[in-house]
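[Meeting: bench + compute handoff]

Bench side (C.D.) handed over the final construct sequence. Compute side (W.E.) agreed to return the predicted structure before the next meeting so the bench team could plan truncations. Sequence as handed over:
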Amino acid sequence: MEESLKREIEATLAAIKPMDKEAMAAVRARQERLTKPSGSLGRLEEITVKLAGITGNPHPKVDRKCIVLMAGDHGVVSEGVSAYPSEVTPQMVFNFLRGGAAINVLARQVGARVVVADLGVATDLPEHPGLLNRKIGYGTRNMMIGQAMTRLEALKAVLAGIEIARQEAEKGLDVVGTGDMGIGNTTPSSAIVATFTGLPVGMVTGRGTGLDDSGLSRKIGVIERSIETNRPDKSDPLDVLAKVGGFEIAGLTGLIFGAAAAQIPVVIDGFISTAAALIATEWYPPVSSYLISAHNSVEIGHRAMLEHMELSPLLNLNLRLGEGTGAAIAMSVIEAATRTLEEMATFDEAGVSESESKLEITQ
């Protein structure tokens, strides 16, 4: 069973194409002809080149947007690593489905649909037209006393994410953002970054939803013991994911794989989403070309992951909410980039002549 699931994932990875150099060159050439000094739109120009490379389209658009928000609970919450109980996870899922959360507001602003998927909430959720039931288990196990998931469970969650990406692509999708919900999920995320970077746990572990000093100290100790107990092998990302990860992190890993295979850019949100991206890029390094980092969160381990993956975030807004909120905000910047590429006039179209020292208006 495990081998057959791995082959399915490998087939998805094999479908991921390298960046389209011709499309990227075409966008660079057009950027040089737009009525502005060369490079003066900075990151906006870089974004359009990257989008062209991902999609193979020298006129990339991001009209059809989606935030995929994956939810799952964590057994390690029983160790007191969160200021909130696990009961908040399903309560927030209901809030997402009612459209009352921050991500709903921000997604509406940028015209993105929100897809909510249950990968491992610790209770049964009632059927809802806006909820995808992809439950692998009722929360992970307590990773401080054993691995969080079996390898088979982790593979199933990754494949669930791949399938969600495929389904959303079939509906029409230009860009996808990652979102998460799961009380306690900064704890496995810190364990993941510490494992792959080799940094001390205390340097990559933050307060999450608002732990006090004693709570933070306890959380660091729990993560250290979890790593010591499970000894995750960083040369095997699936091993790391199964031992110290989470169902929603695995699902987001699969979402990244599936979107990349469909040539859809992935806007990575905050700490938990970036932990999934770290798993994905360690598993299959070429997928990193398909990622756009939305922002640098307050969580101290986030910067370490971004540096490890050599990703530069678009924004720095001191966010620490998750849900895909940073990804939604970043989509407005990405759309701005595509609009400047397509809607600005070239020098020829505007009747503007170039000069070494200035732009001259021709009469």
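W.E. noted at the follow-up: The mean pLDDT is 95. C.D. will use this when planning the next construct.
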